[in-house]
Q: What sequence folds into this?
C-alpha cells in the first residue's frame, strides 16, 4: 500500500531541511524514527547536504530500542555510523543538561507516540522543551500520527499532585493528540519563551488509525509490537500498577493478562456480563518468560478488539480490574513502589493520576459509573486543547 500520509520526517526531506537554517543540529530519535522508506532519521540527517548534525539523543528504552523494561537505564556513547555523541535521556539525566546542548543551536524531535499519557516519550519531549527554553535553543518537532486516532479521549485527567515520569502534565489517559499538537500546548503552559517549529504531516485526519496512513509501523518500544497493542494500551497499562501480569514476557503484551490464581473461564464469564462494546475476551493460560510471574503458569484472558470504533480501552481495563478484585479479593494486590522513579506513591495512583481510580475499584463502583465520573474533566480538557488542534 502506498503512503497517503507524509510524516514530519518525510516533509522535512521534501523541503530540503530548510527549517534547520544551516544551524548546528541535535536529533532526538528512537527505532521508529524512520521515513516512509524505513530509512532512519539519523542517517538522513547525517547524509543530507548542508545539515550539520552534532549530537543524537535517545529516550526510554534506548536510542536503539535495546532496553526491555521500565527503569532500565542506559548510558550515552559515540554513534559508530555518524561519529557523533549519543546522549541518554533515560539514565543519570532525563532532562538535557547545558553541556549536552552546548554544541547545538536547535534540537529536532522525531518520536512516535502511541496516544497514551503513560508513554514516556511525550514527557521526554516536554523536558527537552523546558531545557531548550532555558538554554535559548530552538526546538523543531517532526509530527507523526497518533496511531489510535485523534477523535477520542478516555480516562482520568492527571491530578498535578501525582506528577511523575508517566505523567508530567494534566492530560487524559488517552489524549487524542499528535506529538506536534502536544508540543504547542506544552509550550503555552511550560516553556512560553521557547522558539518552536512543528513540521506538520500532510494527509493525516483525526479519524485515521495507523493502518490507514500507509506508513510503516516500527516498534517504538520493545513491548509495543503492533498497532493492536497501542489500541489497548491506554487502559491496560494500568495493570502495571497491580501484581497481575500485563503480558510482558509474552508475544502479545497488554492484550494478554492474568495471574497464577485466576480461573480463565470464570474471569471471561464475569467479563461477558459487562457487555463491553467492541471487546471479546478469550480464556487463556500462559507462562511469561520474564517480568511478573516469569516461568509460572498464569490463568487469564486475551483481549480481542472486534470493533475499534466502539471499543473503550480504559473502561474495559476498569472492568477487568473490577472483575478480578471481585472474584479473587484475597489474591488481588496493588503493586508496591518503586515505579518510574516514584518511591512513595502507589504505582496505580501515579498511573491513574490520583487515588480516585483505585478507590473506585476497591469500593466496587461499576466501570460505567467510573467512566461517567471522568466526563467533566475530559470535557474541560477538550475546551482547553481546542486552540492547539492542527488537523481537521
A:
Amino acid at each position: 500500500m502506498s503512503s497517503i500520509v507524509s510524516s514530519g520526517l518525510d516533509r522535512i526531506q521534501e523541503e530540503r531541511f530548510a527549517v534547520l537554517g544551516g544551524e548546528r543540529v541535535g536529533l532526538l530519535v528512537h527505532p521508529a524514527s524512520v521515513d516512509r522508506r524505513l530509512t532512519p532519521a539519523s542517517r538522513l540527517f547525517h547524509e543530507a547536504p548542508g545539515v550539520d548534525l552534532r549530537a543524537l539523543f535517545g529516550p526510554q528504552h534506548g536510542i536503539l530500542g535495546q532496553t526491555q523494561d521500565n527503569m532500565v537505564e542506559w548510558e550515552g556513547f559515540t554513534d559508530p555510523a555518524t561519529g557523533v555523541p549519543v546522549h541518554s535521556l533515560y539514565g543519570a539525566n532525563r532532562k538535557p543538561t547545558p553541556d549536552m546542548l552546548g554544541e547545538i543551536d536547535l534540537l529536532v524531535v522525531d518520536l512516535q507516540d502511541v496516544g497514551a499519557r503513560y508513554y514516556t516519550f511525550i514527557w521526554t519531549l516536554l523536558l527537552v522543551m523546558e531545557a531548550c527554553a532555558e538554554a535559548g535553543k530552538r526546538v523543531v518537532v517532526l509530527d507523526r500520527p497518533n496511531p489510535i486516532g485523534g477523535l477520542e479521549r478516555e480516562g482520568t485527567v492527571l491530578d498535578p499532585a501525582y506528577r511523575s515520569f508517566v505523567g508530567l502534565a494534566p492530560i487524559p489517559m488517552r489524549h487524542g493528540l499528535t506529538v506536534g499538537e502536544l508540543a504547542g500546548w506544552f509550550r503555552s503552559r511550560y516553556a512560553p519563551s521557547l522558539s518552536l517549529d512543528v513540521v506538520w504531516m500532510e494527509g493525516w485526519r483525526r479519524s485515521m488509525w495507523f493502518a490507514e496512513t500507509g506508513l510503516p509501523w516500527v516498534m517504538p518500544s520493545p513491548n509495543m509490537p503492533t498497532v493492536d497493542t497501542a489500541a489497548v494500551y491506554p487502559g491496560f497499562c494500568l495493570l502495571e500498577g497491580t501484581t497481575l501480569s500485563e503480558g510482558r514476557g509474552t508475544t502479545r503484551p497488554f492484550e494478554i493478562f492474568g495471574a497464577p490464581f485466576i480461573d480463565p473461564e470464570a474471569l471471561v464469564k464475569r467479563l461477558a456480563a459487562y457487555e463491553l462494546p467492541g471487546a471479546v475476551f478469550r480464556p487463556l493460560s500462559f507462562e511469561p518468560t520474564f517480568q511478573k510471574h516469569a516461568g509460572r503458569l498464569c490463568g487469564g484472558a486475551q483481549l480481542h478488539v472486534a470493533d475499534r470504533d466502539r471499543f473503550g480501552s480504559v473502561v474495559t481495563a476498569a472492568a477487568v480490574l473490577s472483575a478480578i478484585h471481585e472474584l479473587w479479593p484475597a489474591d488481588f494486590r496493588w503493586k508496591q513502589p518503586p515505579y518510574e522513579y516514584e518511591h512513595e506513591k502507589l504505582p496505580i495512583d501515579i498511573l491513574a493520576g490520583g487515588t480516585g481510580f483505585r478507590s473506585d475499584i476497591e469500593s466496587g463502583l461499576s466501570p460505567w459509573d467510573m467512566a461517567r465520573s471522568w466526563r467533566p474533566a475530559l470535557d474541560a480538557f477538550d475546551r482547553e486543547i481546542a486552540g492547539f488542534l492542527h488537523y481537521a
Remarks:
- The chain has two domains: 8-223, 227-373.
- The radius of gyration is 21 Å.
